[in-house]
Design a protein that fits this description.
Strand content: 5-15%
Low-confidence stretches: 1-5, 10-42
Shape: globular
CATH architecture of one domain: 2-Layer Sandwich
Radius of gyration: 21 Å
Mean pLDDT: 73
Largest sheet: 4 strands, antiparallel
CATH topology of one domain: Muramoyl-pentapeptide Carboxypeptidase, domain 2
Helix content: 40-55%
Structural class: alpha+beta
CATH class of one domain: Alpha Beta
């Protein structure tokens, strides 16, 4: 059993179960315009790949965006925005399956237990509350070692606003609502960006 998880692989198994690349260029052009001498070619550091530059710049953009949301928006509004982003991240990456039967719902939850391993999914009561936990991704990075399991922020600076975690709340809502065929409420209990050692959620199935 492999407890590692990324979001797409997780849903597939359990459902059957911007980069501003012009910034560096603009910085160089500005230096030239101010008369700064360019370093000798043999002294220049190897250029980062375009992908590496995009990831690094994207992390900076996300941090600035989160900081501005925290300063200028009330908490319910910014949480609603991030949850909507998480839901869109899920919905635009996965086809919508037919409504699940009770048997399919049971298979969905059982598939998550088997895939995530001990403690990954713990159900309380017959069909009402689920404790759900991310622990590790396929590359071996673990929340216990301080890695955020969001592919964009796994190695980002640790001062990224915890508001960002509401994106995962929206994502988890989408996973469970698709898997159980009804609305759910999701509460973030713990996350790496909020100083924890795990990313844990409480999922409550709505009865009406």
């Amino acid at each position: 059993m492999n407890p590692a998880m990324d979001r797409r692989q997780f849903l597939r198994q359990s459902a059957t179960w911007g980069g501003c690349c012009g910034v560096a260029l603009m910085a160089g052009a500005t230096s030239a315009a101010l008369g700064a001498e360019a370093p000798p070619a043999d002294a220049a550091e190897p250029a980062a790949t375009p992908c590496a530059r995009r990831v690094e710049q994207g992390q900076k953009v996300i941090k600035r965006l989160m900081d501005q949301m925290d300063r200028k928006l009330d908490r319910p509004t910014r949480e609603e925005i991030m949850e909507a982003c998480g839901r869109l991240c899920h919905d635009q990456s996965h086809p919508v399956p037919p409504p699940p039967t009770p048997e399919a719902t049971a298979r969905f939850l059982d598939g998550m237990r088997r895939y995530l391993g001990d403690g990954g999914v713990e159900q309380v009561g017959p069909d009402t509350i689920v404790h759900f936990k991310y622990t590790q991704n396929p590359k071996g990075l673990k929340t216990a070692d301080g890695y955020c399991l969001c592919p964009i922020l796994e190695d980002a600076p640790k001062d990224v606003s915890p508001t960002y975690c509401q994106c995962s709340v929206g994502y988890v809502k989408a996973i469970f609502e698709q898997g159980v065929g009804r609305a759910v409420e999701v509460h973030l209990d713990e996350s790496v960006l909020r100083g924890g050692k795990n990313c844990r959620f409480t999922v409550r199935f709505r009865t009406a």
